[in-house]
Design brief:
Layout lengths: L2 H6 L7 H13 L5 E4 L4 E4 L3 E6 L13 E7 L8 E8 L2 E8 L7 H15 L2
Length: about 120
């Protein structure tokens, strides 16, 4: 974990364990990736960005006040109640936004999706 990654969570340190659980889960699966910290998100990338995490920057009706937003790119629309929002910015390229409020939500299903997003990013 870099200093920049730690600083990213200064405004909401309670979300850091969720991010750590996500990174640890991806590493446990043998995925090679780097984290690029920006002003509003941390991009997880292999050759290309396959996932991004961000903190809430505005209130959204019906969403919790504190969460970690995980965004994943897939080739199709993932049907799941866990997906808060899915958009298709380009044909056959879907961005899925998942809200996480606890580290326990970083489970096998979410890691499967992230691994799938990682593989999809490698072939674009």
């Amino acid at each position: 974990m870099t200093d920049d990654e730690l600083l990213f969570f200064d405004s909401m340190p309670q979300m850091l364990p969720i991010y750590q659980a996500l990174c640890h889960g991806l590493e446990q699966r043998g995925l090679a990736f780097t984290a690029k910290v920006g002003r509003t998100q941390i991009s997880l990338r292999n050759r290309y960005v396959f996932a991004a995490v961000s903190l809430p920057w505005r209130k959204v009706k019906g969403w919790p006040e504190e969460y970690l937003l995980v965004s994943l790119g897939l080739s199709y629309h993932k049907e799941s109640p866990r997906v808060a929002v899915a958009t298709e910015p380009y044909p056959n390229r879907w961005t899925h936004h998942i809200l996480l409020t606890t580290a326990n939500e970083v489970d096998a299903e979410l890691l499967d999706w992230a691994e799938e997003a990682c593989q999809f990013a490698m072939v674009k």
